[in-house]
Design brief:
By secondary structure, the protein is an alpha/beta fold. It has 2 domains: 327 residues, Up-down Bundle (ABC transporter transmembrane region fold), CATH 1.20.1560; 216 residues, Rossmann fold (3-Layer(aba) Sandwich). Helices cover 61% and strands 10% of the residues. It has a 6-stranded mixed sheet with strand order 6-7-8-3-9-10, sandwiched between helices. It has a 4-stranded antiparallel sheet with strand order 2-1-4-5, with helices on one face.
Length: 568
C-alpha cells in the first residue's frame, strides 16, 4: 500500500505535510543554504590559489607565492567558518522543527484534544521520539541543499566553463543521468520504507506489551513463547532495514559509477591535452593552472548532487513519518492548547439527551443513553465487562464528544457542555510517579497548599498510611507505587481528586481487584471525600451499589434504570 494512502490525512500528501512542517524553521534553513553556497565560493577560490601556487612552482616563479598562500589560507578559513556556521544553523533549524512538531503532538495526544480514537502508547512514543527526529533531520539536510545546490553547481560550472569549456560540457552531460537514477531509487525505496515502518510499529508494540505483562507472563510460564514473538518481530525489522540499506547501497553505487566516470573522462582529457595528444578545435589552451583547477573543481560540482541523493533516500522515511504525524495532528490547532483548568466547585447535575457514540469503523453504537443525574447524589453504573461503562464515563467527563446527541452539565451558571478537566477523574489504574507521596497527590492541583494537602490526606483516609511511612508525605514512592498497597494507591488517587476541589466526580472501577477490607476502606474514603458532591461510578462492586442513590445499568449498549437504592 502506498505511504500516503496509509498514513497521510485525507487531502494532504506526504510532500505537502513535509513542506508544512519545515515552515517553522524556514529562516534558519535559508541562512544555512546561503552560507553553504558561500562555502563553495570560498572553496573555489582556495583551490584556484593552490593551482596557481603549483603553476608558479612549475615555472620556478615565486613572485606571487606569498600572496597566493595568503589567499589560500584566507579562503580556507572563510570556507571553514561558513561550513561550521551553516551546520549550526541546520541543527538549530532541526531543533525548531522537532520542537514545533512535538508541541503539536502533545496537543494531539493529551486528553484536551478530545480524540475519538485513542493512540496506542507504543505508536505515540515512536511518533513523538523517533518519527519527529526523522522529519527534522530530513529537513535539516534537504532544505538548505535545495537553496545552495543550484547556486553551488552553477558557480562551479561557470568557473570550469571560463577556464576550459570542453570540461564543462562533460560535466553537464554526465550530470543529466543523475536525476533518472535518483527517481528510480526513490521508487524502490518507498516500498522498503513502508515495510520498515510497519515492522518498527510491530516491534515497539510487542516490547511495550511484554514489559506491561511481564509479571503475568512469568506466572503463566509464557516468557519463552513471548521471547520467540519478540525475536520474530525483531528479525522482521532487521530484514526490512537491510532491504532499505541494500537499495540505498545499490543507488549509491550507480551514482558513484557515474561520478567516477565523469571525473575520469575529464582527468584523461586534461592529461592527454597537457601532453599534446588531444586538441579540441576552438578550445582554449590548457596550462597546469587551468587543468589542475578543473580537476579539483570536478568533485565539487557533484558534491551537492551526492548530498541530495543521500537526502532523497531519507525522504521516504521522512514521508512515512510525516504521514503518521499528520494522522495525529490533522484538524488540531497549530499549537498545543494551554493548560487551563476550568473550575466546577459546586455539585453539578448531568443530562444525557439522545446520546449515541460509535467508534470509527464500527457497525453499531457502543453506547446509547438518555438519563438525568441529579446534583449531590451518588450514581452507580453497572454492566458486564465491555458493555460500555468506561465509554459512557468518558462522554460524561468530556474526554470525547458523542457521535450524536448532547451531554450537558447543570451548574450554578446554567447548562453547559462538559469541560475537560473540570470534573475529578479516578480511573481503573492509578499512575504514581517516582516522586514523594505529596508530589503524587499534588498532581491533582500543583498549587495546593500544605493545609489543602493535609485536608486531602484526611478525607482519603491516608493519615494512618502517612504516619507509617518513614518520611511521611515526603516519602519517595518508587515508580508504580512501590512501598504502598493497591488499596493505599487507590486512596492516594482519591486524595489527588479531592485536592482538585471539584463538585463532580467520575470514577471507573475504583475498587477493582481489592479484597473486602481494602474495598471497605476505599468506599469509606470516597464517602468522606465526596460529601456534597455529584458522584458517578462505573463498577461491578455490590458495596458501591449499596452506597448509591441511583443505580443505572447498561445492557446491549443501552442505559436504563436498574433500581433505586435508599439514600446513604
Amino acid at each position: 500500500m502506498a505511504t500516503n494512502e496509509r498514513t497521510a490525512p485525507a487531502g494532504r500528501s506526504a510532500d505537502a505535510l513535509l513542506a508544512a512542517y519545515a515552515a517553522a524553521a524556514g529562516r534558519w534553513f535559508g541562512l544555512a543554504g546561503v552560507l553553504m553556497a558561500l562555502e563553495t565560493v570560498f572553496t573555489v577560490v582556495r583551490w584556484g590559489a593552490l593551482a596557481w601556487i603549483a603553476q608558479g612552482v612549475m615555472d620556478h616563479s615565486t613572485a606571487q607565492d606569498v600572496q597566493c598562500l595568503a589567499v589560500f589560507a584566507g579562503a580556507s578559513v572563510l570556507a571553514l567558518v561558513a561550513g561550521w556556521t551553516a551546520g549550526e544553523l541546520r541543527r538549530r533549524g532541526a531543533r525548531t522543527v522537532a520542537g514545533h512538531l512535538r508541541r503539536r503532538l502533545a496537543g494531539a495526544l493529551v486528553p484536551t484534544a478530545r480524540r475519538i480514537r485513542e493512540t496506542e502508547p507504543a505508536e505515540a512514543a515512536l511518533t513523538m521520539v523517533d518519527l519527529v527526529d526523522s522529519v527534522a533531520d530530513y529537513h535539516a539536510q534537504i532544505a538548505p541543499l535545495r537553496r545552495s545546490a543550484p547556486l553551488s553547481m552553477l558557480a562551479v560550472l561557470a568557473v570550469v566553463a571560463v577556464l576550459h569549456w570542453p570540461a564543462a560540457i562533460v560535466l553537464i552531460l554526465t550530470s543529466a543521468l543523475l536525476p533518472v537514477n535518483m527517481r528510480l531509487a526513490g521508487l524502490f525505496a518507498q516500498d522498503g520504507a513502508d515495510r520498515q515502518w510497519a515492522a518498527t510499529q510491530r516491534l515497539n508494540a510487542v516490547v511495550l506489551d511484554s514489559f506491561r505483562g511481564l509479571r503475568t507472563l512469568r506466572e503463566l510460564h509464557a516468557t519463552g513463547r513471548r521471547g520467540r514473538t519478540l525475536r520474530t518481530a525483531a528479525e522482521r525489522l532487521n530484514t526490512a532495514t537491510m532491504s532499505v540499506l541494500r537499495r540505498a547501497f545499490l543507488s549509491g553505487l550507480v551514482m558513484d559509477v557515474v561520478l567516477t566516470f565523469s571525473i575520469a573522462v575529464n582527468a584523461t582529457y586534461i592529461g592527454l591535452s597537457l601532453l599534446g595528444y588531444v586538441r579540441v578545435p576552438h578550445a582554449p589552451g590548457l596550462t597546469l593552472f587551468t587543468g589542475l583547477t578543473v580537476l579539483l573543481l570536478c568533485p565539487m560540482y557533484f558534491a551537492p548532487m551526492r548530498a541530495l541523493a543521500s537526502a532523497f533516500h531519507q525522504r521516504e522515511r521522512a514521508a512515512v513519518a510525516a504521514g503518521a504525524i499528520g494522522a495525529l495532528v490533522e484538524d488540531l490547532p497549530a499549537e498545543a492548547p494551554r493548560a487551563v483548568r476550568p473550575r466546577l466547585s459546586a455539585p453539578a447535575g448531568v443530562s444525557l439527551r439522545a446520546v449515541r457514540f460509535r467508534y470509527p469503523g464500527a457497525a453499531y453504537d457502543a453506547i446509547a443513553a438518555d438519563a438525568d443525574i441529579a446534583p449531590a447524589t451518588w450514581t452507580v453504573i453497572t454492566g458486564a465487562s465491555g458493555a460500555g461503562k468506561s465509554t459512557l464515563l468518558s462522554l460524561i467527563a468530556g474526554q470525547r464528544p458523542p457521535s450524536t446527541g448532547a451531554v450537558r452539565w447543570m451548574t450554578a451558571s446554567g447548562w453547559q457542555a462538559p469541560a475537560l478537566g473540570a470534573a475529578a477523574w479516578v480511573g481503573q489504574h492509578t499512575v504514581l510517579l517516582d516522586a514523594t507521596v505529596g508530589d503524587n497527590i499534588r498532581l491533582g492541583r500543583p498549587d495546593a497548599t500544605d493545609h489543602q494537602l493535609e485536608q486531602a490526606v484526611d478525607a482519603a483516609g491516608l493519615r494512618p498510611v502517612i504516619e507509617r511511612l518513614p518520611g511521611g508525605l515526603d516519602t519517595r514512592l518508587g515508580e508504580g507505587g512501590w512501598g504502598v498497597s493497591t488499596g493505599e494507591v487507590r486512596r492516594i488517587a482519591i486524595a489527588r481528586a479531592f485536592v482538585r476541589g471539584a463538585g463532580l466526580w467520575v470514577l471507573d472501577e475504583p475498587t477493582a481487584h481489592l479484597d473486602a477490607d481494602s474495598e471497605h476502606d476505599v468506599v469509606e474514603a470516597l464517602r468522606r471525600a465526596t460529601r456534597g458532591c455529584t458522584v458517578i461510578i462505573a463498577t461491578h462492586s455490590a458495596a458501591l451499589a449499596a452506597a448509591a442513590d441511583t443505580v443505572l445499568a447498561i445492557d446491549n449498549g443501552r442505559l436504563h434504570h436498574a433500581n433505586l437504592v435508599s439514600a446513604r
